UniProtKB/TrEMBL annotation:
It comes from the Eukaryota. This is F-box domain-containing protein. It comes from Manihot esculenta (Cassava). PANTHER family: F-BOX DOMAIN-CONTAINING PROTEIN (PTHR35546:SF25), F-BOX PROTEIN INTERACTION DOMAIN PROTEIN-RELATED (PTHR35546). Residues 16-54 form the F-box domain. It holds the Pfam family F-box. InterPro entries: At3g26010-like (IPR055290), F-box-like_dom_sf (IPR036047), F-box_dom (IPR001810), Gal_Oxase/kelch_b-propeller (IPR011043).
């Protein structure tokens, strides 16, 4: 009597490694739906190894951002505006942070599908006295002890609707504490940033910088791989970032190729980056004679977009890319917005801002996203054609253009789970 051979489907279903390799080839949204198949599939899809395998497989496919997010300080809800990059797409961008039980959430950073968020200043529901700080102070049921009072920092994956409240070691927590109700005192926190690169690792790092005095700062780094914090004191005198009086320039840091980067707009324009592997700061030279309108990254490359310094509203821009070894900037594109202006003559063009550059897998589809008088438009670098993709209301636009904390943030889908 011959034994019955198991079919191939049964073999695959029982082999976790093989099943992970198959699931890693699926797009994000269908993959997440398969969590409902069984507890075992839920566990597999939530495994960091699948997240890493998924990123490795889709690396060559070069997934592009589907939307740009902008903090919205004008409306009470939502806490950010969603700008879909392809309004004609059959699958609309559905994004919400309604699963977070924290008021007045602001985006601090976006990195490969994850968002770093901060809340308003949280106090106990029984708090009798609330100073007149508008929406910056909120009673919250999450405040149970004195340690809970203050600003909450969250790491969030809006695609999977998961989040993790960051916990800091006691020495750092004490240094981050804000005396209440003295919320406008000189804050010691220069920045809170994170690094997540699923093409390199399924793990992430949290970086917090505390100013000690004019010359020295303390850097705290958390690794999710080891679940540990480390710290070191660093001399930043040569960076000339005026951290003793104002940490201007350390807002809106972004991750690119193993480092966190910042651009300082106030005073003499300058840029620095923090090398995560060596845990050191380094200066970055900016192109001379260029009025920088945008400093950011796309697909792992650093870009600067700007015009001549003597033009108030330039229509001629140059897009520069930084060499991989940080040795020089080289010209990637020349763009001229004159045709865009002629096609949108009903706009005054009194406000013009470069929001982002999106480098596509097909270079002919790469675009620069521009905001003009509340209208978001894309400019295709290959042929100079443009199209409207979103309309912002003027009041929201006005606030966004006058706040230093409202940089645009690229959004991509990821299956990473905490």
């Amino acid at each position: 009597m011959t034994s019955k051979r198991p079919n191939s489907a049964a073999v695959v279903a029982e082999a976790d490694d093989l099943l992970i390799e198959i699931l890693a080839r699926l797009p994000v949204k269908p993959l997440l739906k398969f969590k409902c198949v069984s507890k075992r599939w839920l566990s597999l899809i939530s495994n960091p190894q699948l997240s890493f395998s998924h990123s490795q497989f889709h690396r060559g496919l070069k997934p592009s951002p589907t939307a740009i997010l902008i903090n919205d300080f004008y409306y009470s809800t939502p806490d950010f505006r969603i700008i879909p990059l392809d309004p004609s797409a059959t699958q609309k961008v559905e994004l919400s942070l309604d699963f977070l039980n924290f008021p007045r959430i602001s985006i601090l950073q976006s990195c490969n599908g994850l968002l770093l968020l901060s809340s308003s200043f949280l106090v106990s529901p029984s708090e009798m006295f609330l100073p007149d700080y508008g929406r910056s102070v909120h009673r919250s049921s999450s405040v149970v002890t004195e340690d809970d009072r203050g600003i909450a920092y969250l790491l969030c994956n809006p695609t999977t609707r998961q989040f993790k409240k960051l916990s800091f070691p006691s020495p750092l927590k004490e240094k981050m504490r804000i005396p209440y109700p003295l919320l406008n005192y000189q804050h010691r926190v220069v920045f809170v940033c994170f690094a997540f690169d699923p093409k390199r690792s399924p793990y992430y790092k949290i970086i917090v910088m505390i100013k000690l005095n004019k010359s020295f700062v303390e850097i705290y780094i958390y690794s999710s791989e080891t679940d540990t914090w480390t710290s070191r004191t660093t001399d930043v005198t040569d960076l000339c970032m005026d951290i003793e009086f104002s940490p201007i320039g350390f807002h809106n840091g972004f991750y690119c190729n193993g480092a966190i980067h910042w651009y300082r707009k106030v005073g003499h324009p300058s840029a620095v980056y923090f090398d995560l592997d060596n845990e050191i700061f380094k200066k970055m030279a900016l192109p001379p004679e260029l009025d920088v309108w945008y400093f950011g990254e796309s697909d792992g490359h650093l870009y600067v977009i700007g015009g001549l310094v003597d033009l108030f509203l330039p229509l001629d821009y140059v897009v520069l890319e930084m060499a991989a070894d940080y040795s020089e900037w080289f010209v990637r594109y020349h763009i001229n917005l004159q045709s865009m202006r002629e096609e949108s003559s009903e706009l005054s063009w009194k406000v013009c801002e470069v929001l982002s550059i999106i480098c596509a897998k097909d270079e002919k589809e790469s675009v620069v996203v521009v905001l003009v008088d509340g209208v978001v438009m894309s400019y295709k670098v290959s042929d100079g054609t443009s199209k409207r993709i979103f309309d912002l209301e003027w009041k929201s636009l006005f606030v966004a253009c006058t706040q230093d904390h409202t940089n645009p943030y690229q959004y991509v889908e990821t299956i990473h789970c905490f």
